[in-house]
Amino acid sequence: MITKSILSSDGTKIVFDVLGKGEPLILLHGGGGGQSRKSWHEHGYVQRLLPHFQLITIDIRGHGESGKPTEPSFYTIDQMCSDILAVADACGIDQFSIWGYSYGGNIGRFLAKRSNRVKQITIIGIPMGSAVQGEFLNFIESFSQEWAPIVAQYNEAPTSLEDLPAEQKTLFEAHNIPVFLGWLTAMLKWGSVEPLDLSCPALWLSGSENQGTMASINQYQEQLQSSKMQVEILEGLNHQHEFEEIDTVFPILFDFTQKNLI
User: Domains in the chain, please, with CATH?
Assistant: First the structure.
């Protein structure tokens, strides 16, 4: 394994691993909660994929060892897509496949809409349509309402952190709240991607207990019939399980990817 870094177009460091040989496959992790490029290693995906692909696992900006700007302007969807293409360029890759879980799937589908360099994409556990909707939208709005004033005060006077209740202070430090707030609120302006917007083969996977994604699948039933998107629903899995239950998930992802490389 080779770990590398580049400077993206706005000067933010992006760290990534390159492993193996073969068709290039970029793996994009979920958002927050300790997610990083290492998540694909820790949950066994890299080990299973390594004999078959050149793997590129990226720390999405705001996560892992990549740069962590705090302003939402650093997390526009244009910039997020630019980061992925810059990594591909650094690896000497023209076209590539993508597996994206949650936040990574959100970024990946926007890139697949915009660039013919995406050969195929697997989108795990997110709705189509708007980048932010339903319960996730409600979460971002309530999160911003609670934390934006605290972050603004902290930026003016870092010592103000000491005045927070112990529980809030712990959360602020443990989750790097200014960064979290930055990329979360930026998503409000990302726009929308629908099934017919994707010109490459796409797999859309959801657990049956992921209510937001299941509602979106039902909403797009008619459009899906005319799209290049294949839908897979895994009974009994919630959003977390969609990534962690690798024995259930992996065969479906792998088979779809192999089929569409031919």
Answer: 2-131+192-259 (3.40.50.1820), 134-185 (no CATH)
